[in-house]
Specification:
By secondary structure, the chain is an alpha+beta fold. It contains 8 helices and 14 strands. It starts with a strand and ends in a 5-residue tail after the last helix.
């Protein structure tokens, strides 16, 4: 597979056996891909090479510091009618303009993983369902489960946050493009805090953030290279399930590792520019189930909830509320 980078020193930290580098663009590269590389690197590659990675991965672009969101570059390329190559991996050491849902800023300092991939499944919408949406969530949790000391410690907070011990450590975005009822392209963006806890002001929706290195006794077990390759492995494995009609397995895993099932939650409007205290509460109740399109089924709500920002009621508050009648009941004589 082809590897392009703007910094050999940066690129080599991600591979145990670095490629044999040469100058210039990769051979047999389409004009469209060359155009996309120029946007990703903002210059001609400092070096190109080749390396073996499992299917579906075929191309890697490594940028030491991205001045634009790689996710946005790939999405805009699709919208402009340019076709990124299937199995494209874009990795940035750090970056500017990175974001989550509704353009919320995602801090991207060096020491963490900032990954975007492009896939072209060419499957009917009905065959994919929520498969592509849950693909990164399941892959992230499985990656963390594979790290000694992190087994079964992470979970998914609806819709796209990955938490360890109630602190956010990863988030993801998925953008798909369809034509004639078939999904022709998908861009997946992942931010995963590995070695650095970014400075993020706490909010009611994200009270705290963390990084993997703070939850293991030996930071070596979650080096950037180790986590990167394990994440690629699980993304590839689970993408294989999506395209072979087994997306339901990913949805079941998503439900099993959900942090909101059986919990009392409040859902607020998901508005791009509003402050937390300006948001309107649109639904609330105990989560009874998560539907096939990731909608929340809440006790006391007549309609499923498909979108919004979620706040989970602390377990301690639930326990205090449950004990309150007992504590205030007169002692019998």
């Amino acid at each position: 597979m082809n590897v392009c980078t703007d910094s050999i020193r940066f690129a080599e930290q991600w591979f145990s056996s670095p490629p044999h580098w040469k100058s210039g663009l990769p051979e047999r590269m389409s004009a469209e891909y060359g155009h996309i590389i120029n946007h990703l690197l903002l210059q001609a590659p400092a070096a190109t090479g080749s390396i073996e990675l499992p299917e579906p991965w075929q191309h890697v672009v490594l940028v030491e510091h991205a001045v634009r969101s790689q996710f946005d570059i790939l999405v805009n390329a699709m919208r402009a009618g340019l076709a990124p190559p299937h199995g494209l991996i874009c990795l940035a050491g750090s970056g500017e303009g990175f974001h989550g849902q509704r353009e919320r800023v995602w801090a991207a300092p060096p020491g963490n993983i900032h990954l975007s991939v492009f896939l072209s499944p060419d499957l009917h919408l009905n065959d994919i369902g929520a498969g592509l949406t849950v693909l990164p969530a399941v892959s992230l949790v499985q990656t963390l489960d594979s790290i000694p000391g992190l087994e079964k410690r992470s979970g998914i907070r609806w819709v796209n946050d990955i938490l360890i011990d109630d602190s956010k450590t990863a988030g993801f975005l998925v953008h798909t493009q369809s034509s004639s009822g078939r999904v022709t392209g998908a861009v997946i963006g992942i931010g995963l805090n590995v070695g650095i806890v970014p400075h993020v002001a706490p909010t009611m929706f994200v009270p705290s953030v963390t990084a993997l290195c703070h939850h293991v006794s030996d930071p070596g077990v979650c080096s950037l290279s180790v986590v990167f390759h394990r994440l690629l492995h699980f993304l590839a494995q689970n993408y294989g399930k999506v395209v072979t009609g087994r997306a339901g397995e990913l949805l079941e895993f998503y439900r099993e590792r959900s942090l909101v099932m059986g919990r009392r939650v409040s859902v607020y409007q998901d508005l791009q520019d509003s402050q937390d205290d300006d948001r309107k509460r649109v639904a609330g109740g105990t989560v009874l189930s998560i539907g096939d399109r990731l909608e929340l089924i809440l006790a006391g709500e007549l309609h499923p909830v498909f979108r919004g920002r979620l706040v989970v009621e602390p377990e301690a508050a639930k326990k205090r509320a449950a004990w309150a009648p007992v504590l205030t009941k007169p002692t019998p004589v």
